[in-house]
Amino acid sequence: MPKLTFYGGVDEIGGNKILLEEGNTKVFLDFGMSFSEEGKFFEFPLLRPTNIEDLRKINVIPEIDGIYKNAGITISYEKNGGFAVNGTPEERKIDAILLSHGHLDHSGYLGLVRPDIPIYSSVATKKFLKLRNDINKNWAAESSQESFNTMQVSETKQIGRDLTIQRFDVDHSIVGASAFFIRTKNKKIVYTGDFRFHGYRKKETEFFRDAIAKENIDVLITEGTRMSRTEEGRALETEEQVFEAACEIAKREKGLTIYDASPADIDRVKTLWRVAKETGRELVLDDKKAYFVLYLNHNEPEKLVDNLPGINDFKIFLSREKLKKTSKKFAELVFSGIDPFVETFVAGRNGHQRILLSELDPTEKYPDAIKIPGERFLWGPLGREELLKNPEKYILYTSNGPLTLLQLIPVGKKIKGSYIYGKAEPFDEEMEISHDKLKNWIDLAGLKMEYAHTSGHVSYEDLKEFIKIVKPKCVIPVHTKNAAIFEKFGAKLLKPELRKSLEL
Ligand SMILES: [Zn+2]
Fold first, then answer.
1. Which of 170, 339, 407, 480 is deepest in the core (most CB within 10 A)?
2. What is the pTM of this model?
3. How far does residue 12's CA lie from ligand 1's centre (Å)?
4. Dihedrals φ, ψ of 164, to 5°?
5. How many A from CA of 85 to the centre of ligand 1?
């Protein structure tokens, strides 16, 4: 009999880590970070966990053998400053991780996992995680690219002796999201990951739904984010409505239009690109967003994402970075008279910014990088001046509103324009606090605050319909704080409990 154990995603939004065992075969469905549990103890950026022991102390990762890097090895320190390595490495006991998508609440602890455990995902998810790591180093989330075993849509693979898995694309607010159909010896199990029916890739979710509807599914493990998050009162129903609303605001606005959305949501870039074309504004992407958009398809044998804007379709707003004042470079640059603007330099920049700037980089650190001519960048005081002088010409996409406004607002002046908020509204205390800070920045800038957003998650009505069509024998809700509401959906409800097992 197959067995499921829930190490996260129970009575919380995210943190999915679900162990499925059948005979000798063990797989995890996602290995995500729990924002709420980590948030109880840590605070970004002042207090962060820095190794696996820190996470074990707060009891947020499963205590099981054969899954973590270097487990079984201990280091003992000697008084003279030396150390010795003891123990023998554990054997691998987990056969695979099925990764639904790259959001941290599903992928955030993959960096702890031994690299010889294969990760099954879409090609786009593998690439997304690589790009995210170029942007933000995150030790707990950084998985080895070699661990990935990518699957096409509908492709089937055998895992261990007892399982076969099939992957499907689903629509979600990130590229490459997958659902999995798993056959054990005598049960059929589906894991939806996070999904929806109201974005541009609605057809992909429908294809998945129709494929599994033919299979007499025994167990449906599904997300239920919006069954508990009712506070998204201002959210629009579809991505198309986000386009329409943002168009209307950008048309009405005679000043700058700033749009604030998640860095991971690539479909929202497509929406903003459409808005830019429709309203005759030029699209400006912040450097993180630009990096994802330009590099997702770069050097891939097949296009991973369709209809993305190319480098001639937008400009890049490059966030300022400071050279250390004591550095020789700084002294040379500032006092040589070559460049009076201390922000407009390549030296001192790293990671994705350095890659974006490779064409202007005399050191030619990244010879394979996309060549971006200097005029595509809006950076330094001149770049900001251009945005503020001709605000009606631009629509600026930021994934960090306060940081962008901090850099953009001139001392003692206002910015003429609208600020469109395109993220989920705050649903806990911590988010409430940062949302208040954002509002203060918007007020300080003198911008008008507007809303145009739709959720990455399935709505109540769509979920009800989905369950009605798939007709699973039982439903296990995860990634929700309201499992009880699933009673209403007509299938037998199995409520998971944290760190407890369900025999199927
Ligand atoms: Zn997600």
1. 170
2. 0.94
3. 13
4. -125, 145
5. 39
